[in-house]
């Protein structure tokens, strides 16, 4: 069967685009800081460079303007004449004075004198504006770099889900694992069934979301993720797969979205990893191969067998049947 459009990709990206926002697009500007953080890195770096470049050129032009209006550019800077800024003769020297002041380099060759009140006011304005720009842009870059999105790259999900019997009950199962030694604190897993349906009133719901129970009542959804775990959804009378059989699975069209959330131990930030399974990726009558083995003083995880499954005898009938 050809691959159909997914609601959530295997890597967790949601295939949803918002269009025809109209006047609602102004809401992005009202929360400009979050909008800036959500931009791609190339746009963040471009805004970062443009903001500093424009700010530096504008402020250097203001220093050059003060020197031009006072006539400092035409006067010889000696003991008999006190300019606003010493040793500023043209725009490049005004630009260098601004950069030295803004970056607190202070070579000592160019400095502001006390007989220039407009220069003192501009110096105070420059200090305040520079602090605001630095706090905004550097804070934005720091938050973007510290986002735990890349931590989700080391959280693995099995490529396929399986349906087989466990403890004499028909179950839908998939596997999760953590590649890092650092733990995911308070890790919790949730599952959503995305499937189109029609209500008794005739309303068509194209992407109806239904919760799959993976152990809410027993606490099995709270994971101690130090080794690969097999997550189990028991198919019973309350499950949306109550009428699912091996034959009907071939004609069904659904998507199971898996959401794993937890706190990164090293940073204390919340991380979320997502994946999905379509009906073509659900294997009836299969079970996952073991990946844990006991060696000399420790347990070893063989991730080469993480996605591997093998067939087991499983009734082809639904739980209802």
UniProtKB/TrEMBL annotation:
Inward rectifier potassium channel C-terminal domain ranges (all copies): 155-320
InterPro entries: Ig_E-set (IPR014756), IRK_C (IPR041647), K_chnl_inward-rec_Kir (IPR016449), K_chnl_inward-rec_Kir3.1 (IPR003274), K_chnl_inward-rec_Kir_cyto (IPR013518), Kir_TM (IPR040445)
This protein's GO CC annotations: monoatomic ion channel complex; plasma membrane
Keyword Cytoplasm: no
One term of GO molecular function: G-protein activated inward rectifier potassium channel activity
Site location (Role in the control of polyamine-mediated channel gating and in the blocking by intracellular magnesium): 134
UniProt subcellular location: Membrane
Protein topology in the membrane: Multi-pass membrane protein
Domain Potassium channel inwardly rectifying transmembrane, residue spans: 8-148
Catalysis performed (reactions): K(+)(in) = K(+)(out)
One GO-annotated biological process of the protein: regulation of monoatomic ion transmembrane transport
Stated name of the protein: G protein-activated inward rectifier potassium channel 1
Gene: Kcnj3
